[in-house]
Amino acid sequence: MGVITPDNRLKLLKEKLDQRGFVRIIEAHSGLSALVGDAASFQSENGVVEYDGLWESSLTDSTTKGLPDIEIISLDSRINTINEIMEVSDKPVIVDGDTGRSPVEFEFLVRRLERLGVSAVIIEDKVFPKRNSLDTSAKQTLEDPVAFGQKIQRGKSQTLTDEFMIISRLESLIAGTGLEDVLGRAETYIKAGVDGVMIHSQKDQHDDILDFAAAYETLCKRLGVRPPLICVPTTYNLTTDVELAEHGFNIMIRANHLLRSSYKAMEEAAVSILAHDRSFESEAV
Ligand code: SPV
Ligand code: MG
Question: How many angstroms separate the CA atoms of 255 and 55, rounded?
Fold first, then answer.
């Protein structure tokens, strides 16, 4: 660990996608969580399963600082977290770029992330400051698709390598505008030159995600280009990564699970010490 150059790390995501067809990504929000995600390994019937890369999540980076996920963490602070992660893991990193903010801010974000050796940035088609997509009480306001396509083009104009990926994240299912709207947006963003398309949903069933995946194949056939398809199966958590891959998904991001599990363990330990007036019982947590 810690022995990879930015150039070599950057290329790893596309290399793994080309070799394997789909990749498993786990969230990291600190050096420690990156170490855990990096080391995780499971001996399955078909061989050893590991994570292929790390997701630097806006939700978990903000929550680690006790703050809401509304784009108030500064870019310098996010980059500090990215550096913590890169210090301890050689895996490729995908950064959650939120809305990407204004086109000019997005240009600088792309330049800074590519220089660090990040493999991909995902930006969502919502208006700054975005609200977290899983917050069902939040009002979700979508960006004008043409303006968002132009922001993608502005980012693409700054890349220095063919390997750095700019991925557009479709939020229509989150905002409730439906399949027709989301497909129109996917077409606009693909024509703008995106390197990947992420579809998000907050439903606990995978039906709308799989409907989109089927329609995406038809759309891509018509357009003659098929950027990798990405999902974040947080709410439809009965669905396996292999099932998602069978429906055409190429990048599966498990976006917040290391933070949520550590939060629960911390809470239990903190209460246990109060309840028992000593720490013996908390050792088991
Ligand atoms: C994140 O992990 O910050 C994400 C995914 O953007 S979600 O929280 O589901 O919006
Ligand atoms: Mg986010």
Answer: 7
pTM greater than 0.85 (yes/no) = yes
> Does the active-site annotation cover 277?
no
For tokens 């790893």, name the residue: 12
**What's the CA gap between 113 and 53, in Å, rounded?**
16
Name the pairing type of β-strands 229-231 and 251-254.
Answer: parallel
Q: How does strand 93-96 pair with strand 120-124?
A: parallel
Helical ranges in the chain per DSSP H? 6-20, 31-39, 58-64, 75-88, 103-116, 145-156, 172-175, 178-192, 207-223, 241-246, 257-276
> For 136-191, what is each residue's pLDDT tens digit?
999 999 999 999 999 999 999 999 999 999 999 999 999 999 999 999 999 999 99
Residues whose CB is less than 8 angstroms from the CB of residue 95 and which lie 6 or more positions away in sequence, other chains included: 56, 78, 82, 113, 118, 120, 121, 122
CA of 133 to the centre of ligand 1 (A): 7
Establish whether residue 59 lines the binding site of ligand 1, counting it when its CB lies within 6 angstroms of any ligand atom: yes
Q: Is the C-beta atom of 98 inside 6 A of ligand 1?
A: no
Amino acid making up residue 100: G
Cβ count within 10 A of residue 133:
24
What are the backbone angles phi and psi of residue 120, rounded to the nearest 5°?
-160, 150
> CA–CA separation, 143 vs 102, rounded Å?
11
* 284 C-alpha to ligand 2 centroid (Å): 32
Does residue 62 line the site of ligand 1, with CB under 6 A? no
